[in-house]
Specification:
- The chain is α+β, with helices and mostly antiparallel strands.
- It has seven helices and 17 strands.
- Strands 10, 11, 14 and 17 form a four-stranded mixed beta sheet that branches. A four-stranded antiparallel beta sheet has the order 13-12-15-16, with no helix packed on it. The chain has a three-stranded mixed beta sheet with strand order 8-1-9, covered by helices on one side.
- A hairpin with a 6-residue loop joins strand 15 and strand 16.
- The relative contact order is 0.17.
- The model has no long low-confidence stretch (mean pLDDT about 95).
- The structure holds iron/sulfur cluster (2 copies).
């Protein structure tokens, strides 16, 4: 059976919040019985854009990750709910029944993604329900998706095997796979949010004139072995990306024509710009 998934490209999200606002427009003040009680005007972000700045000036980049209920296939919220208040539909969508879930604050605590919001006025937990009330009317795109100017979001309804194949082929990832919740929200280019880089700028000084060094060979070493190699660009810059945060000791080895080899030790916590390295 075909089921719903959401694919989000982190590289395409500009943090415009169009999806967040479109979702508010759909749910604030609107009651969708069986799907979602009205979303409060303030305090809820059923689609919430997380952001991360990596590096230090002038080597800085920003990544934005739209987050929402992941419609997990092994959902802790369903296990925590009493009276069947949270359940999975055959099409993959998780619903928290607005009436049955009343008073069940434990559903909020059960979600490891922080995707359940507590409606204080109605005393009920709420999630982004994949716009299931619209899907059931034949919609094939969600309000957030339709509002996205960069088409960073794409809802797809496919067989699970096809989705798994696509994820493997396109390098799609889910948030916190180690939890084993099997999310149905997939991310492309998630490394821009989760991984770290080591960057720097190679320069030289001749007769009092400082110049950047283009074409210097830069190697990234770990435990004495070479992990990667690149040449500096015309600004003398290099950047090794997609490294694990807090992954310990590295060495950056630089060889520029006519200059002695230079080695810079690095202990990687978060993304780091090594600054100007004079050879
Ligand atoms: S993200 Fe949280 S609320 Fe959504 S299905 Fe998973 S556990 Fe439940
Ligand atoms: S509408 Fe698109 S670009 Fe804007 S915040 Fe949402 S996902 Fe990102």
């Amino acid at each position: 059976m075909k089921k719903w998934n959401m694919i989000i490209d982190v590289a395409e999200c500009t943090n415009c919040n169009g999806c967040t606002l479109a979702t508010m427009d759909e749910y604030v003040g609107n009651d969708w019985p069986g799907y979602a009680a009205p979303m409060p005007k303030h305090g809820h972000r059923w689609i919430d854009i997380k952001q991360k700045e990596r590096g230090q000036a002038p080597f800085v980049d920003l990544a934005y990750v739209p987050t929402m209920c992941n419609h997990c296939d092994d959902a802790p919220c369903i296990k925590a709910a009493k009276n069947g208040a949270a359940y999975k539909r055959p099409d993959g969508i998780v619903i928290i029944d607005p009436e049955k879930a009343k008073g069940q604050r434990q559903i909020v605590e059960s979600c490891p993604y922080g995707a359940v919001w507590w409606n204080e006025e109605l005393q009920t937990p709420q999630i982004w329900p994949f716009d299931a009330h619209l899907i059931d009317q034949g919609w094939t795109e969600t309000r957030g998706q339709l509002s996205c100017p960069t088409r960073a979001m794409q809802a797809v309804c496919v067989e699970d095997d096809d989705m798994r194949r696509r994820a493997a082929d396109e390098g799609l990832e889910v948030l916190r796979p180690e939890l084993g919740t099997r999310p149905r929200v997939w991310y492309r280019n998630l490394w821009r949010y989760t991984k770290a880089f080591i960057g720097g700028s190679v320069s030289t000084e001749e007769n009092g004139t400082v110049d950047c060094v283009e074409g210097a060979t830069v190697r990234l070493l770990k435990d004495g072995g070479k992990l990667a190699e690149m040449a500096t660009d015309n600004y003398g810059d290099f950047k090794f990306d997609k490294l694990d945060e807090n992954s310990g000791a590295y060495a950056v080895e630089i060889e520029a024509a006519g200059k002695p080899k230079k080695t810079v030790p690095v202990t990687l916590a978060e993304s780091v710009y090594l600054g100007e390295i004079r050879v």
